[in-house]
Amino acid sequence: MHMAAQHPTTALLLCEVVMEILSWVSAKPLTRLKLVCKSWNSIISHPHFVKLHLHRSPKNAILLFTRTPALTLDEKEKWSLVLSSVESFIQNPSSTPDAQENRHSLHLQDWVVGSCNGLVCVAHILGHPNNDICDIWFRLLNPLTGFISENSPCLRVNVNNVFGFGYDESSDSYKVVTVIRDSSGTVTAQVYSFGGSSWKTIDSFPAFPFSAEDNGHFIGGTLNWLGLRNPHGDDYDWAAVTLDMLMIVSFDLKSDTHKQILLPKGIDEIPDKEPTLGVWGNRLYLLHDYKNTHFIAWQMKEFGDENSWTQLLKISFHHLGVERLLPEFIFENGNIFMLRGRRRFEEVFYDRRDNSVKRINILANNSYFIAFDYVESLVRPC
User: Fold this and answer.
1) Distance CA 371, CA 65 (A)
2) In this structure, what DSSP letter does residue 338 have?
3) Which residues pair with 337 in a beta bridge?
4) Residue 7 gets which letter from DSSP?
């Protein structure tokens, strides 16, 4: 006795039900569920499902770019990517996960540019002996699926450059931006869309970020840096910087154009130390000290609306138990701030929900790391 074939409408409805259920499953099990049958593999691999799943994925993970020291004379120091939950990292950042599936080794010449939609952009940097020129290639990684893209075309630049990585929804493309300052102080940008064949030059970039470690902050289809307007030379004296020299430059990945975002109106004097930008979720943050006695955090409640800047907190160094600090990262929708204290290996976590302070001495083997907001995904660019 043969079973009747399924009606096409019934089969389509069943496929939609399966897709709906699978879209709520976390990314890691889905990589195994693809092996269940051909139809599940087809559903999970479909671009529509990948985007639906990404939209529904919990945003509760971070990616650490950390230095792994050589343990023996025969070994070499190396960089690693480490996946961690926010909760476990805050609980004990000096003990990052050691499981092999959560740690991915990188070359010594690699530098993580940023993370977006589960993809990590990595720059491979080779310096030229006896001069300030370097060659850079960029590639994309998906640490969960093991996907690695082709390298970008080589970009030859001077050593005064900073990076940014983000997603252009209008063209469904991922872009990396390199901001470059030459010896005369002129600032330009180079833009590459992954899958393309060449770089695009953007002249007359209006500002240069403070530090090579200040990767562009991705939000709302833009990359954002805090920098100095019209810098001259390789060095600057922060004591001589004025408020009108300080600006946030926002680069639109759709139009490849830039504009200025005004600082909060409540900032009426230059901070004692260089401020920093941060992003969590869909909010932009500006973090700085006040008279070297307080830590202040501003939040832009509606990105792009300069009138929506709101002072989120102002807390004394005394309450934090530090004499000086460096803002480093933001968690939980602007509720938890990670700050580096005066001691080299001390991290300070401040939770504004209960006004609590947690100080942790980071072990020497984790003396250097950068944290990125991260979400596990199945994304694989075309």
Assistant:
1) 6
2) E
3) 330, 350
4) P
**Per-residue pLDDT tens digits for 226-266:** 988 765 555 677 778 888 888 899 999 999 999 999 999 98
Radius of gyration of the chain (CA): 23
Q: Quick count: other Cβ atoms within 10 Å of Cβ 354?
A: 6
DSSP-H helix ranges across the chain? 8-22, 27-33, 38-45, 47-56, 86-91, 317-320
197-236 confidence digits (pLDDT tens): 999 999 888 888 876 667 899 999 999 999 887 655 556 7
58-374 CATH pick, 1.10.3720.10, 3.90.180.10, 2.120.10.80, 3.30.465.10: 2.120.10.80
Cα diameter, the chain: 89
Q: How many CB atoms lie within 10 A of CB 269?
A: 9
Map out the domains of the chain as residue ranges: 8-53, 58-374
d(CA 62, CA 83): 6
User: What are the residues whose beta carbons fall under 8 Å from the beta carbon of 102, sequence distance 6 or more?
Assistant: 82, 83, 84
> How many other C-beta atoms lie within 10 A of the C-beta of residue 56?
10
